[in-house]
Design goal:
With 169 residues, the chain is of the alpha+beta class. The chain contains 3 helices and 8 strands, in the order αβββββαβββα. The protein has a 5-stranded antiparallel sheet. The termini are far apart.
């Protein structure tokens, strides 16, 4: 038992001496810059004005939404809903278009899930793109939904492209 302990102690001393005396290299003068990720939605203005948001069954209200990269790093973004409320919340459908490309088409509950409406493009610093966002009251929405309302916050998450390799959410 003493022999085993002595061998273990000797091995530990040799390993420690090797770690302390082994060659090391260093390179001075390394400089790294960090980037910021910041996305602006519509300059902070509501996407839908009070006068444009009168819905009838089967009718869609469409507004343009400008998404701008105000940070210093290339970024990707996704839109989602928060604070969804109101009598008609389960009867509205959303469509988000970037040009002719459909980024999202579905109900409000689906748009509450982050990552469900991700842009395929990379926004460089200072770059902006315009989306068309539509809200539609379903054709079959009954009288109990008419006269009701829906409220929500339209939000965005952004991620620096360097961190995801052009991938996403």
């Amino acid at each position: 038992l003493r022999l085993v302990a002595a061998v273990a102690l000797a091995s530990l001393v040799v390993a420690l001496a090797w770690a302390l005396l082994s060659p090391r290299a260093s390179v001075r003068g390394n400089v790294f810059d960090t980037g910021t990720v910041s996305i602006d939605l519509n300059g902070g203005a509501p996407a839908f004005s009070e006068r444009s948001a009168r819905l009838e069954p089967g009718r869609a209200v469409t507004e343009e939404l400008v998404v701008a990269n105000t940070g210093t790093a290339a970024a990707r973004y996704c839109l989602y809903l928060e604070n969804l409320q109101g009598d008609a919340a389960d009867a509205v459908e959303f469509t988000v278009l970037l040009g002719d490309a459909v980024l999202f088409s579905g109900d409000a509950a689906q748009l509450e899930r982050r990552g469900s409406c991700a842009s395929p493009t990379i926004l460089e610093p200072g770059q902006a793109e315009t989306l068309a966002v539509s809200v539609r009251l379903r054709e079959g929405a009954g009288d109990d939904r008419q006269g009701g309302g829906v409220g929500f916050d339209l939000c965005a998450d952004a991620v620096q492209v360097a961190n995801v390799g052009g991938g996403g959410f």
